[in-house]
Amino acid sequence: MKLITSISGRIGRLEFAKTKNDKTFVKGSLCVSKSYKKNDEWKTIENWFDFSSFDEAVVNYFKNQAAVGDFLIANAEIARSKSEKGEFYFLNITKAVSIVKKDNAKRLYSTNCTYVIGKKYSDFTLSENGWLNGSIGVMTRVKEDGEWKNTNMWLPLAANGVIAKRLVDYPKGAELHLEGELIADNYETKDGKKIKSIRLSVNRIAGSVDKATNSTNDVEESTENGFEPDDDTPDFMKAISNGIGDLPFN
């Protein structure tokens, strides 16, 4: 099970810190925006992701090249940190592809492309308005008590229309190959714990493997099948569909 993300956006916060073992790491926040056109009016949704990296090459690149307001193009994976204060999902930058200084980045537009292979461990359902309720299992890195380890995590999915119905139809145990965009989802539980989660908005089903029969199914279904955001659409999904209009470069 794996997840590969190519993402870009403007750096909103940037700082360097040290671990207990005196190793320097970088952390900050990244604004990934997307615009869509509805009723002849352009609207923009901003997703703020926390990020970090312990990779020495990435840390040095940020030290020498990056500043708040610059435009970052990077490869990343999802990581998770657990503490008494809550549970936090963030982007672990595995490669800083490029940094464009803010004065030269005015016409650059954010990208947010994720390819994931995950396992459907439980049945999915649809809400009354057709939104998918379900998560897949993928591999991630977790920081617990200051130590990193690899583990499985639940990656919540967001989908509507044809894609949502198709995902519901897959049997438990199926290995799903999905393409989409990461969405930041922050909230607080009833007991006061803060949760910073990340979900995948599924734009395309690239294929699947039925582990019970070891058969593959190469399908290509995308949100080009007619999804349009409306007043009942959750805020984090209003700009996710393909085919809602041309994207401006601003």
What does this structure look like?
The chain has about 250 residues and is mainly β. The chain has two helices and 14 strands. It has one domain: Beta Barrel (OB fold (Dihydrolipoamide Acetyltransferase, E2P)), CATH 2.40.50.140. About 10% of the residues lie in helices and about 55% in strands. A hairpin with a 5-residue loop joins strand 1 and strand 2. The longest helix is centred in the N-terminal third of the chain and has 10 residues. The protein starts with a strand and ends in a 28-residue tail after the last strand. The C terminus is likely disordered.
Any idea of the CATH topology? OB fold (Dihydrolipoamide Acetyltransferase, E2P)
- What is the total tally of β strands? 14
Which architecture does the CATH hierarchy give at level 2?
A: Beta Barrel
Content-based structural category? mainly beta
Q: What's the number of helices?
A: 2
Order of helices and strands: EEEHEEEEEEEHEEEE
What is the straight-line distance between the termini?
A: 36 Å
Question: Could you name the key traits of this structure?
Answer:
250 residues, mainly beta, twelve-stranded mixed sheet, two-stranded antiparallel sheet, 2 helices, 14 strands, 57% strand
Question: What's the short story on this structure?
Answer:
The protein is mainly beta. The chain has helices at 56-65, 161-169, and strands at 2-18, 24-38, 41-53, 71-83, 86-100, 112-119, 125-126, 132-133, 135-144, 147-158, 175-188, 194-210, 215-217, 221-222.
